[in-house]
Design goal:
Blueprint lengths: L5 H6 L6 E2 L4 E6 L3 H18 L4 E4 L4 E5 L9 H16 L3 E2 L6 E8 L2 H13 L5 E2 L2 E2 L9 E5 L10 E6 L5 H10 L3 E4 L6 E5 L5 E5 L5
Parallel strand pairs: 6-9, 10-13
Antiparallel strand pairs: 1-2, 2-4, 2-5, 3-4, 6-10, 7-8, 8-9, 11-12, 12-13
Helix pairs in contact: 2-3
């Protein structure tokens, strides 16, 4: 199936769901373990019927669901259809979603030697030196965040080499940025906003707040 654009995903009107780097994410506030377990079982039945299986994480107060068409490498109409079905299922059980909650953290490493150092970081993070896909170190089991290599020229001057990319729902980004600034941070560069905004703490350590908009 064809990948959907950001505009198509937003136009789909999935009130419970937010698109982060590659997938659709939702958090359902089940409040207790028994309700969450029952919701997971019901989602499993939907997934079997659709022959399309999400990633589901059950915790005491909520259930997190991630939808991605792995064969297409992103979000397709198949994911949108299952997302709607899961939302209808949750609503029918009186379970609300928290669309502002989904968050994904990625690590970025500034380097001119991605091919040389990639196997090292793959082995360190995942135990498999071959767990490199292009400029990314990936862990299919989801134990560690994705690490991507930001290409740069060779340089001798010391500077920050790692930074965090914090992916948040597009309608949460401004609030999160304002909170970080109020807590002592500053905006370093917002020229690419709302795609990403570069922030720094009081010591100059940087992070990017990222959304799917303008990508």
């Amino acid at each position: 199936m064809s990948l959907l654009s950001t505009a198509q995903i937003l136009d789909a009107g999935l009130a419970d769901w937010r698109k982060l780097p590659q997938a659709l994410h939702a958090r359902f506030l089940t409040r207790d373990f028994t309700t969450g377990l029952a919701l997971v079982a019901a989602i499993g039945e939907l997934a079997e019927d659709a022959r399309h299986h999400p990633d589901v994480v059950l915790t005491y107060p909520h259930v997190d669901v991630k939808l991605l068409s792995h064969d297409a490498g992103g979000v397709t109409e198949r994911d949108v259809d299952l997302a709607r079905s899961i939302s209808e299922l949750a609503a029918g059980r009186g379970i609300n979603a928290d669309p502002g909650a989904p968050t994904v953290v990625e690590l970025a490493l500034d380097t001119a030697e991605a091919q040389t150092i990639g196997p090292f970081w793959a082995a360190l993070l995942t135990g498999d030196a071959g767990a490199v896909d292009g400029d990314d170190v990936v862990d299919p089991s989801g134990r560690v965040p994705l690490l991507w290599f930001q290409h740069t020229d060779h340089h001798e001057t010391p500077r920050q080499r790692f930074h965090l990319d914090l992916w948040v729902p597009h309608d949460v980004a401004d609030t999160r940025i304002a909170a970080a600034v109020s807590a002592g941070g500053r905006i370093v560069d917002d020229a690419e906003a709302p795609s990403f905004t570069v922030l720094a703490d009081a010591e100059g350590n940087r992070a990017c707040v990222c959304t799917i908009l303008d990508r």
